[in-house]
């Protein structure tokens, strides 16, 4: 594996821990980071010594969202050409248990990345949200689909249409996380869970994960395709350009419905 620029990788027996590592950007998910993440997961997929994986950021942020500077000036054709969601599909198809250890912000693409994981351990400081609506777009990496399946229509509508954040305790009550623990132990708890699973039969674990996802993924592909088409469409609007420009300039957006 080539040297990593935006990730750190640690191994402990049958457990690997992958750290998102863009601390100055609160681990915002740029295209380069996502490519690295897919490469690392591909390598761990084929490594028989690794039986479960923890994905985490740092205490301030799991990931504060996608890197808006990557897409602020793009139009629908450019976004379609990039086919960035192919990387998300690869994460979705990762066959080994993937456990998110979340502290601080898990917003936008960060929240969607959490929902790609099989289990979630959150610190008391964790905050979850899909604030894309404030940028003149919508979640594009499965946020509308997975969030609705996890928390129900009413809660998903509130989060997606207002862009508000919710606390770790609220996320736990809504079924988004397995449990909430003190900040000093969230990573250890996730690694402990990973080690427990790693003691089981790797073949049985793989097929068990596949079986659970078979229920969860029923009709998901159709919903994801619909979400992505709407996501791309919004990149031909003036509101999208205004929303992302305002975010970069750190000012309120003025949407005109065009």
Tell me what you see in this structure.
There is one protein chain. The chain is an alpha/beta fold and 258 residues long. The chain has a single domain (1-183, 201-258), classed as 2-enoyl-CoA Hydratase, Chain A, domain 1 (Alpha-Beta Complex). It is 45% helix and 16% strand. It contains eleven helices and ten strands. The chain has helices at residues 31-45, 76-82, 85-92, 109-116, 143-151, 153-162, 168-173, 186-198, 202-216, 220-233, 238-249, and strands at residues 7-12, 15-20, 52-56, 61-63, 98-102, 105-107, 119-123, 127-129, 165-167, 179-181. The strands form two sheets. A six-stranded mixed beta sheet has the order 1-2-3-5-7-10, sandwiched between helices. A four-stranded mixed beta sheet has the order 4-6-8-9. The radius of gyration is 18 Å and the shape is globular.
Number of strands: 10
Q: What would CATH call the architecture?
A: Alpha-Beta Complex
Give the percentage of residues in beta strands.
15-25%
Shape: globular
The spatial strand order of the largest sheet comes to: 1-2-3-5-7-10
CATH topology: 2-enoyl-CoA Hydratase, Chain A, domain 1
Alpha-carbon Rg, integer: 18 Å
Judged by helices, strands and strand pairing, the structural class is alpha/beta
Question: How many helices in DSSP terms?
Answer: 11
Distance between the termini: 46 Å
Characterize the main sheet. 6 strands, mixed
Number of domains: 1
User: What is the CATH superfamily label?
Assistant: 2-enoyl-CoA Hydratase, Chain A, domain 1
List segments where confidence is low: pLDDT < 50 over at least 5 consecutive residues: none
Which H/E pattern describes the elements? EEHEEHHEEHEEHHEHEHHHH
The quaternary state of the protein chains shown equals: single chain
The percentage helix is: 40-55%
């Amino acid at each position: 594996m080539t040297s990593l620029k935006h990730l750190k990788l640690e191994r402990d027996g049958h457990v690997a821990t992958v750290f998102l590592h863009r601390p100055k950007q609160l681990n915002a998910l740029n295209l380069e980071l996502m490519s690295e993440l897919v490469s690392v997961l591909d390598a761990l997929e084929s490594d028989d010594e690794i039986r479960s994986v923890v994905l985490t950021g740092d205490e301030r942020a799991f990931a504060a969202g996608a890197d808006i500077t990557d897409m602020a000036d793009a139009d629908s054709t450019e976004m379609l050409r990039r086919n960035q969601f192919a990387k998300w599909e690869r994460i979705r198809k990762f066959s080994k248990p993937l456990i998110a250890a979340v502290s601080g912000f898990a917003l936008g693409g960060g929240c969607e990345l959490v929902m790609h994981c099989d289990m979630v351990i959150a610190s008391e400081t964790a905050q979850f949200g899909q604030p894309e609506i404030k940028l003149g777009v919508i979640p594009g990496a499965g946020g509308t689909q997975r969030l609705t399946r996890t928390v129900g229509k009413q809660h998903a509508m509130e989060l997606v249409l207002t862009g508000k954040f919710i606390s770790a305790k609220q996320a736990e009550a809504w079924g988004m996380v397995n449990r909430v623990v003190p900040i000093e132990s969230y990573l250890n708890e996730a690694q402990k869970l990973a080690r427990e699973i790693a003691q089981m039969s790797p073949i049985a674990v793989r097929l068990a994960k596949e079986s659970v996802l078979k229920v969860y993924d029923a009709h998901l592909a159709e919903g994801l395709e619909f979400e992505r088409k709407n996501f791309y469409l919004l990149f031909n609007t003036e509101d999208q350009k205004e929303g992302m420009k305002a975010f970069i300039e750190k000012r309120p957006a003025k949407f005109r419905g065009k």
